[in-house]
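Memo to structure team: turn this sequence into structure tokens by end of day. - J.P.
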Amino acid sequence: MALKQTQRLALEARLKALLAKLEEKKIKAIFITSPENRRYYSGFTSPDHSMVESSGTLLVTPQKQYLITDSRFTLAAAQEAPYFEVIDGVLERGQSWVKKVDLEKGSQAVFEPGYLNYARFMSLAKILRNEFKISFKPSPFDPGELRARKSPSELKLIAVALTITEKALANLWSEIELGTTEKEAADYLDRDFKQLGADGPGFETIVAAGARAALPHARPGSKRFERGDMVIIDCGARYQGYNADITRTYCLEPLKDWQKEIYGVVREAQNLAIKEIAPGRLASQIDAVARNYIAAAGYGKYFGHSLGHGVGLDVHEEPRISENSRACLEEGQAVTIEPGIYLPNRGGVRLEQLVVVTQNGYKILNKDNHFYYF
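Reply from structure team:
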């Protein structure tokens, strides 16, 4: 299928930005092995929109760009990656591709240290050393950083993924019953995502009820929903490769005073942080607004994770909204704001909104009602 002109222009712009970064850092060649970055810069999705590392590797030099993939994917890659020469080969076995690439002998190549495992690194380093006398080192920059600012077309895909997620949550809530298990709820959502048109879940769905809601990333188990429980559900559909991420805390009344209190604290902390979002604001400052409010309410030690993160082709990407982040917010970034309070052996609350940084401030993408009672 031929790419639309808008898609070609987007890919061309991304590649130009990457090449400019290589020139700035004086890099002669970079191997991109992360599935998200491979898709972002080349357009190659693999036939099922999967994010599988073995589907291919990008080799980018200032003069030429290559997509090294095996025979299962060469035809699809040729159709989807117009600015890359597609080479049939496997990265760790250099015989089939080293003779087809033009690398400057005696120079240096870099790789993404967060994505290339040790075994693959050793194999590729040996090939480059023997064939080109090239040294192989970690990249001085993360190519994924260039994905932080989203184009309007990317934001539309994220919005569709979020709409599907909210619809699935609404469907679940309309059918939920006391006695439902965490796993049954998670399975329902994962199935509904696909039925509503998504690729599937973007990450493992989290459902934690009662005292287990004090575990921020609890895996769904056999715990049944009971009256008086607070139920944390953290989930997100993936649509055409782009992710949504949403967390809601469902309240199965009657609630105790402490449950209502921490819900209110988390909700207000989130509201205050969102109101501070604007281009030029430090991510660490946004984190501090929510963190300081929760601390002032007496729950500081029960909020241990960062406030949020970027969302796109990966469910966790730049910018990181955390105490230690050096990121400065920019227009076009899609970020989560998700404060929480987790009281050991009692329960917890987390609320998460998906927010886009606009020219003058922010826009909340979520359309659903924050409050859920049963």
